[in-house]
Amino acid sequence: MKTRQVFYQCQRCGHCCRWPGFVRLTSQDVLRLSSHLALSEEAFVQNHTHLNPDRSGLVLNTKENGECCFLEGVNHCQVQAVKPFQCGGFPNTWNFPGWREVCEAVEVETWEEGVV
Ligand code: SF4
Ligand code: SF4
After folding, report:
1. Which domain holds residue 67?
2. 41, containing H or E segment
3. Of the chain's two ends, which shows fewer C-beta atoms within 10 Å, N or C?
4. Whose CA is nearest to atom 6 of ligand 2?
5. Peptide bond preceding 91 in cis form (omega within 30 of 0)
6. CA–centroid distance, residue 111 to ligand 1 (Å)
């Protein structure tokens, strides 16, 4: 029996890089981003992150208008090759109520053979 799977294919509209919220960073994100930017981890943390208000971890800095510090223009991510796991997972591994109204990802349907 085949099972319907739905995958949302990002259209790079850039909306999720501009809406309010936090891009939380894992220690792996800090390693990958600092290496990509040729910075020490300390310099990356100092220049591009701050502590989440609930002090649970580091989040990316934002510009004065609220968009991500790595967003260039409308939809260009300057760290696309190593973007944080949180960015890469949206909207397939996590999302929030109402996300479909602001995200332009296209629904791609696949059918996979189920395990008997
Ligand atoms: S790191 Fe890149 S993908 Fe993530 S919010 Fe910033 S600009 Fe968008
Ligand atoms: S809002 Fe959706 S389609 Fe637009 S960049 Fe983010 S994930 Fe991709």
Report:
1. 2-113
2. helix 41-48
3. C
4. 16
5. yes
6. 31
Distance CA 74, CA 85 (A): 21
The domain tally of the chain equals: 1
Residue 81: phi and psi, rounded to 5, are -65, -25
Helix 27-36 vs helix 41-48: crossing angle, to nearest 10:
100
Q: Could you tell me the pTM of the whole model?
A: 0.91
Tens digit of each residue's pLDDT (9 = 90 or more) over 59-106: 999 999 999 999 999 999 999 999 999 999 999 999 999 999 999 999
> How many angstroms separate the alpha carbon of residue 106 from the centre of ligand 1?
19
**Whose alpha carbon is nearest atom 2 of ligand 1?**
77
